[in-house]
Design goal:
Blueprint lengths: L14 H27 L6 H16 L22 H42 L2 H15 L9 H18 L9 H12 L3 H19 L4 H16 L8 H17 L20 H19 L6 H16 L4 H23 L8 H29 L4 H5 L7 H9 L5 E3 L5 H7 L17 H11 L5 H7 L2 E7 L1 H4 L5 H9 L3 E6 L3 E6 L4 H8 L9 H13 L3 H14 L3 H19 L2 H13 L3 H13 L6 H12 L6
Length: 643
């Protein structure tokens, strides 16, 4: 590994011993950064944007063109869609198609590892201290971790650090051809993520300041100017050409209203932790400011104006919207490392070597950091990834798998309504059905429409009018277990109580409601028991309940016996139902509750117990058709003890 420009040798030891000691500590520092970077990549971030990204990528691959109009929603069908991130969409889709979720997960780990590796390398080159670079990078892990999602934003971090690395290499004497990488980076970035405008500004500031320092007449300065021009021209190589340079600013002009609702566009709350708001950001920012001011006082001539300007602008962006917090974390690593080195040199003027104690201290710090990660943080990562690497990283359990399969198996017509964050998932897995809304937000939809969607999601007064206006026939919604305590519980309660909506599917994760008029085909098929249900125990138990609600008790019994034989996990669920019915029967003496107890006992083979429960139901005035079934069951089961 190449030694930093200001690194010092260990005094008082032989060259071989000194070299081995330094190599050992450096390897330990690099390993610490790598392990912490992998820990950062293991954070679970709900992959709502990933699914619509891959749906768009599939469309582009299948049609051989980048769509200019909306094609995925029926609410905004044909509206203008400026899709600047088409290349990342194709990349993620092709990666998923080739290697499944594991390939996407591995890419995330590799991208995050590369980002922290580049940030550490740049910090080492600037400061001459791998200790300061690695320490700052590890601190940045806790700032960046909550935001590291598998989506196009990863290319913002990689593009930023690639630009920083190229300019840094050129500063330290790399040949002019190295600058040719800047137009290449910008060519890719322009088609990968909207943030390429930030990247172009980054190139202009860093290369421009460096050119001014060299002097306009110097050949190396002219190469820098040429690189800036080349990077600007490379940004025009996109489907919309010059318009792509103006669109991000147009979108920012529209952001005012959206910023109040989309959480990643909200300003961060400093020094307090919440969703997409790490408390560490406030402390990290304060430490960066403190060290920068101290370095400016200690060595004002050595502070680089370009670096300081980039970090200051990025800090302002992060304070305005928390989605830029991880960007600040990455660009601050080299800046903080250099400032720490400047402060150290000022305080320890005259020192010409790194002592054995300092090397030992760095090694012990690495061991302690790795021990903390192993003891406290690795169990957290293991719990996240227990369901599978990709499934854990993307919070796969959040999405309505069973409901999607139910809709796929039953190709009846009907416009969908669903959660905003489920739109992308439905786009990908149900390409034949257009969605109501999805996470592309202001790229496609208007603010007024978003407010309509929000009113319906929250079950606000007039929610049914919104659904009527757009002709919604089907609603895919979280079940009680998922919606409990959330803002979606109100809408679920409204649907349960409404005579205009009927539940045709439920699996404990999600429910599907059909409108009695617009979804008439679904209601009729549900009542005729011609709908198909996925092979999930909870979905099949819903079908059992549908038979029971329709008083088709023999069919319910036969199907429940089949379900219990096929799905062992269904047994505890039915036992819970039986226990609740038994409690109700004993406390209230309800005939219907005793009937239910008898039904479930009969299914699980407790003949005497079932007979006792059926007799108790009949004694308490059970009416037909339950009474007829209970008498038939008693004839089949024979006499039994009392309840």
């Amino acid at each position: 590994m190449k030694q930093g420009p200001n690194a010092r040798m260990v005094p008082g030891h032989g060259p071989e011993a000194r070299g081995l000691a330094q190599i050992g500590v450096r390897l330990l520092l690099v390993a610490t950064v790598a392990v912490y970077a992998l820990y950062a990549a293991s954070e679970q971030v709900t992959g709502a944007d990933l699914w619509w990204t891959m749906a768009a990528g599939r469309y582009i691959v299948d049609h051989g063109a980048v769509p200019r109009q909306e094609v995925f929603s029926y609410t905004y069908d044909g509206a203008p869609w400026f899709n600047q991130e088409w290349l990342s969409q194709v990349f993620y889709y092709e990666l998923y198609r080739a290697g499944g979720g594991l390939a996407l997960a591995l890419f995330k780990f590799a991208a995050v590892l590369a980002a922290f590796g580049l940030a550490t390398w740049i910090g080492w080159r600037r400061s001459g201290s791998l200790v300061f670079a690695a320490g700052t990078a590890v601190a940045a892990v806790f700032v960046c971790r909550p935001f590291l999602d598998i989506r196009a934003q990863l290319f913002l971090f990689l593009g930023t650090l690639a630009v920083l690395a190229v300019v840094e290499a050129y500063r330290h004497g790399a040949r002019p051809w190295t600058l040719a990488l800047l137009p290449i980076v910008m060519l890719l970035w322009t088609n990968l993520h909207f943030s390429f405008v930030y990247g172009l500004g980054l190139v202009a500031v860093l290369a421009g300041v460096e050119a001014l320092k060299l002097g306009p007449s110097r050949p190396r300065a002219r190469w820098l100017v040429a690189a800036i021009v080349g990077a600007g021209l490379a940004c025009l190589a996109n489907p919309r050409h010059l318009q792509a340079l103006t669109l991000p600013f147009v979108m920012l002009g529209r952001e005012g209203a959206w910023r109040r609702e989309i959480i990643e566009w909200l300003p961060p709350g400093l020094f307090r932790g919440s969703y997409l708001n790490p408390a560490s950001f406030g402390y990290f920012l304060a430490a960066q400011v403190l060290v920068a001011v101290t370095a400016a006082i200690a060595a004002p001539r050595q502070v680089d104006v370009g670096d300081a300007l980039v970090v200051a602008v990025t800090a302002a962006m992060a304070l305005a919207a928390r989605r830029f917090v991880p960007l600040f974390g990455f660009v601050s690593v080299p800046f903080g490392a250099k400032n720490l080195a400047l402060v150290r040199e000022r305080w320890l003027a005259g020192r010409t070597g790194v002592s054995v104690a300092e090397l030992g201290g760095a090694a012990l710090a690495c061991v302690a950091a790795l021990a903390v990660l192993a003891v406290r943080l690795v169990p957290e990562a293991r719990a996240t990834l227990a369901a599978g690497v990709f499934e854990g990283l993307t919070d796969d359990a959040y999405f309505p798998h069973g409901a999607v399969e139910f809709l796929r198996q039953n190709p009846l017509p009907g416009r969908l309504f669903h959660l905003y964050t489920w739109g992308g998932y439905l786009m990908y897995w149900l390409p034949e059905r257009k969605v109501f809304i999805d996470g592309r937000a202001q790229q496609v939809y208007s603010w007024s429409f978003y407010l309509e969607n929000k009113a319906a999601e929250y079950g606000d007064p007039g929610w049914d009018g919104v659904l009527d206006r757009y002709g919604v026939a089907l609603i895919v919604w979280p079940s009680e277990r998922v919606a409990a305590g959330s803002r979606y519980a109100v809408m679920l309660r409204q649907l349960r109580q409404s005579s205009r909506w009927g539940c045709v599917y439920e699996d404990g994760q999600a429910a599907v409601f059909a409108h009695v008029d617009r979804g008439r085909d679904w209601i009729d098929a549900y009542r005729a028991f011609t709908l198909r249900y996925p092979d999930l125990p909870t979905a099949q138990l819903f079908l059992v309940n549908a038979y029971l609600n329709a008083s088709r008790y023999p069919q319910a019994r036969a199907h429940l016996v089949e379900v219990l034989g096929q799905f062992p996990k269904a047994a505890p669920l039915t036992q819970q139902v039986e226990s609740r019915l038994l409690d109700t029967a004993r406390t209230a003496g309800a005939a219907g509750a005793w009937f239910g107890v008898g039904f479930y006992r009969d299914v699980r083979g407790d003949g005497p117990g079932a007979a006792a429960a059926f007799r108790a139901a009949l004694q308490r005035g059970l009416s037909d058709p339950q009474a007829s079934y209970a008498r038939e069951a008693l004839e089949r089961l024979g006499p039994g003890p009392g309840p």
